[in-house]
Input
Amino acid sequence: MSSQRRFAMIRKVLSRSVMATVSPVCLLGWGIFTCLASLLGILGTDSILSPVARVTFWGLAGFFGLFVGNAIRGTFAFHWGLGTLGTALAAPLVIALVVAPACWAALQGLRDEGSDPGEPLLFWGLGVLALSSLSSLTRLLLQRHIDRAARKAVAHMQAASIPDRARPEVVDVPTPEAKPAAEPASTGAAIADPPFPCAFGTGSPPPAMAPMSPPAPMRPRLYDRLAATGGTVQHLSADDHLVIVGRDTGREQLRLRFADAVREMDDVEGMLTHRSHWVARAAVAGFDREPGGKMFVLLRNGARLPVSRSHRQALERTGLA
Output
C-alpha cells in the first residue's frame, strides 16, 4: 500500500470516528458514563482527585475512549474484514492497551507528589478491559436488535405486493348490431343497411385508438437525498450512523438509518448480502470465494462487498451465487 493511499485511509477512519463519536447516541452514553464514574470514583480516583477534577478527568477520558473505540471498531470491521463477533471480541483488548496507559499516566501527572499513587497500571488495564467489553456487548446486542428489525422491514417490503399504477386501458366496445330499416309502405324495395353504423352517420369505421404507453417508472425516493446527480445506485452500506451510497459514478455518505435507506429504494430489485450491505440485483457482476470460505459479491462499479453465511443461502436460492 502506497503512503498516499495509507494516509487517505487513516484520514477516512479518523473522520468517521469523529462523526460517530459526536452522534447523539454516543454523546448520551458518554454523559451517563461521566456522571457515574465521577460519582463512584472508580479505579481509585476518589482518593486522588476532587469531585470537580473527577468530572473533568472522566469526561476527557470517556470521550477519548469513545473516539479510540470507534476508530478501532471501524478499522477492524471495514478495513480488516472482521465480522461483528470478531470485532466485539478483539476491540476491547486493543482499547484497553491504548486507553489504560494513557489514562493512568494522566492521573499520575495530576496527583500531588507524595500522595496516594492510586491503583497500579495492571488494575487500570483490567478495569478498562471490563468497561470496553461491557460497552461492546451492549453495542452488539443493540445492533443485532436493530438489524433484526431492519431485516423484517426489508422482507416485508419485498414480500408485499406492489399495486400496479393506474394505466389507461383501451376497452373494446362491442359494435351494436344494425337494425334493418322499415320497409316503405309505397314500394317493396328495401333500404340497404349502412356499411358501418357509427354515431356520426354512415361511412368508414372510426380510427382505432392507439394504445397508450405505460408511464415511465418513478425514481426511488433515495435519489432525492443525494447531492450529486447522475448515475445509478448499486449498493448501500451501513457505517455506524451513516449510509454509504455506492453508484456507478462515485460514492456519497448520508446520515440516515440503513433500513430507511433500503426502504427508500422503492421498486428497485435488490437483496441483503450482509447485515450492513444491500446490493441492487442488476449491479451484480459476479462472486469471489476465498480459500478460507469467505464469499464476496463483485459489483459493476468495482466494489467488493462481503457475503455473510446467513445471507448466502438466500443468494443461492435466487440463482446468483
